[in-house]
Amino acid sequence: MNHVTPGAQMKVRGIHKRFGAFTALNNVSLDIAAGELVCLLGPSGCGKTTLLRCIAGLERQDRGTLYIGDRDISELPPQARDYGILFQSYALFPNLTVEANIAYGLTGGNREASRQRVSEMLELVGLAGSEKKYPGQLSGGQQQRVALARALAPSPSLLLLDEPMSALDARVREHLCTELRQLQRQLGITTLMVTHNQDEAMLMADRIAVMNNGQVEQYARPQEIYDQPATPFVAEFVGQGNWLPFQRSSNSHAQVGGMHMRLADNASTVSSGRLFCRPEAITVNPVVHEENLFPAKVREVTFLGNRCRMSFELEALPGHALLAELAPEAMPRLGSQDIWVALPPQSLQVFA
């Protein structure tokens, strides 16, 4: 059963958009491969929803070009752009049945073909038999599935998702994220999703475009975004992190407070700035000697179920709180407030 035709490549070229004196998008370019799921991730006001609305034709860009496949859609009206869209509000018609809501975007076919298509879509999203119900009789998660079925029913080349899970509680959201990702892979439909939730982006995306102040700061796979953030903003916005002020003391070492830290062999050669380190990269009371091993004092330990988060400060950098994450079974090794911590050279990223 061919539910949806495979997705097309999406190209965004030099998109600019201003609202009065405010620049919402500043020369944004992206390539989205056919069948890929890309997340636009960033804080409120960074431009991610404006970019989605420009692609959808709901806003008109001031400059730049948009392509679906080889077709320039930059000046086309929304109904001619061949996409399905799913909003955070679901936007279902409360006075129409589930069947009528899904069939709303189907045109040019006969009634029996439309009914068959609706049945296929409901089976696809796990709501077979719900044709005659009304949106008010469904849970939030079920309404979102109906809205997804409606977006997919016309077999679009591109699926646009605008914060589609934000109105759902955490458990339903995670379950629906997983289901949507599996469905997107099954259908091979090119998908662009807006979210401010980094866990959602990490769980679902093939690639993430981290946006800030109308620009893309980094566009890469989730693991690269997390392990090798390209800018301080990306490092701070995605996940937890530690920052240490430094002065370069040699090609391979930096001075941090009263400490002499070895850096990774491929570290940036800037003379001063900040070192960045993820909490889970720090080793606490290592059983064998490690590089960059320094005395520290525990401030606080928070139990988080599958891990513990420890706040501490280095003796040579008092008043500067840092975080480490460790497995609960490592807790007995703490022993007292006085500990040793190792900051592996390869985990220290250098920013000017």
Automatic annotation (TrEMBL):
MF terms (GO), sorted A to Z: ATP binding; ATP hydrolysis activity; transmembrane transporter activity
SUPFAM superfamilies referenced in this protein's UniProt entry, alphabetically: MOP-like, P-loop containing nucleoside triphosphate hydrolases
SMART domains from the UniProt entry: AAA
Domain ABC transporter: 10-238
Pfam families: ABC_tran (PF00005), TOBE_2 (PF08402)
Top-level lineage group: Bacteria
Gene Ontology cellular component annotations, sorted alphabetically: ATP-binding cassette (ABC) transporter complex
Gene3D superfamilies: 2.40.50.100, P-loop containing nucleotide triphosphate hydrolases
InterPro entries membership: AAA+_ATPase, ABC_SmlMolc_Importer, ABC_transporter-like_ATP-bd, ABC_transporter-like_CS, AminoethylPonate_ABC_PhnT2, Mo/tungstate-bd_C_term_dom, P-loop_NTPase, Transp-assoc_OB_typ2
GO biological process, any: quaternary ammonium group transport
Ranges annotated as spanning the membrane: none
Keywords in alphabetical order: ATP-binding, Cell inner membrane, Cell membrane, Membrane, Nucleotide-binding, Translocase, Transport
Protein name: 2-aminoethylphosphonate ABC transporter ATP-binding protein
Lineage of origin: Bacteria, Pseudomonadati, Pseudomonadota, Gammaproteobacteria, Pseudomonadales
